[in-house]
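Please predict the structure of the following assembly.
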Amino acid sequence: MFKIWSPLGWEGGSSPIFKTTPVEVSYNYGYHAQRQYPPMSLKTLQLLIDTGRLDTHHPIDLATLCQTKVYRLDPNLRQFGVHLTAEGMDGFKAKVHLEVQWASQEAIAAVERNGGSLVTAYFDIFSVKALADPIAFFKTGQPIPRRLTPPADAVGYYMNPANRGYLADPTKVAEERVLLAQKFGYSVPPLDDPVSQEAQELIKDPRQVFYGLQPGWIVSLADKRIYKPLDEELVKHYNS
Amino acid sequence: MLIHARYKFYRTFWPYCLAYPKQTQIFPFNIHLDLSSKSLKLPDLFKRDIPVKELQFSYTHSSGPGGQNVNKVNSKVELRFHVDSAKWMDEDTKHKFKNRFQSLITGEGYFIVRSEKTRSQSQNQADAISKLRTNINVALTPEPAKFTEEELKSIESGKKRFKKVTLMDKRRRSIVKKDRKYSDW
């Protein structure tokens, strides 16, 4: 899905009005730095699960979605992740553990109503490039990047428990789960035991990009090995 | 620091350990709040939860244009519950609620509210619950305070005094203006 929002006022190539007239200045300031989140609906998600393209027994993040090849992402077009929309929320019946980059309140409610869980997490562009096509990334031989913190205009979103941000306070997230259930009229179903081995798989550290892999490691598909850094400075850098 | 020591998986020293040192549970957050005793920070007067299990929902077709979609999809939501046998409302609130919203309560004592605002059943259900909550808040808002007879008398006498004073000022002013005119005698 290589859709990209064109600049405001763009007229398909001909000189736009705001350029021919001398009044408007800096109309599209910062366009080349704007982050975009191509949407995916709950309808397509349910379809992918029903047709067997997604496995609900494992957590679903950006990498698994891109590997289905139904949802595609181009990081070169400043596309930073998935925006989960609420279309098809009435017919959404799957129990999933999702990690997305943006989600509306209705989508969060539809996921949590069935006993699943949702996290909104920020990935910087180099991490997104790794996630959008992991196999191609591993073939380049680069070490897995250390995920960066969100920029200033995104920190508020990812620290907000209402959005299930990955930097939010857990007790406040629990409160918000209850409030959302109050709003949409369902009882909050209990989650699986969070301390079990399986549940630990669902948890990504804020510096982690892939499940089960740490930043700094080099995954070699040809050798079928993982190369880990031993130098103290590197280890310290990747664990900070 | 606790979390890093306990688990063997990759964990850096931020942000949970430093930002939320008291939290021993990390995502998925399985902390459940007991609603029966706690009042959530809700911006309304009825600061308690409405138990959804004690409300009856029924789903039907919405009205209006829309062809096959509106004919087939059950997006209209009707919410009803028996007011007298509701345990989640105090006697006081029940009394006020019944007085204020007699028109929405049937002869048998059922409160009914319908919603077909959106195309989605879930969102219409949310709308119906919000309507119920706003109605309860409207019933609980206290009546505006009315003035007593003594207070009304003092207000009236005050108005008269003010009018008297303004008239005196006006007359004084008009004399000053007249004195400025040229007069023969």
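The mean pLDDT of chain B is 83. The interface with chain A takes residues 7, 9-15, 19-20, 23, 25-33, 35, 40, 42, 49-50, 52-53, 55, 57, 75, 120-123, 125-126, 128-130 of chain B (CB under 8 Å).
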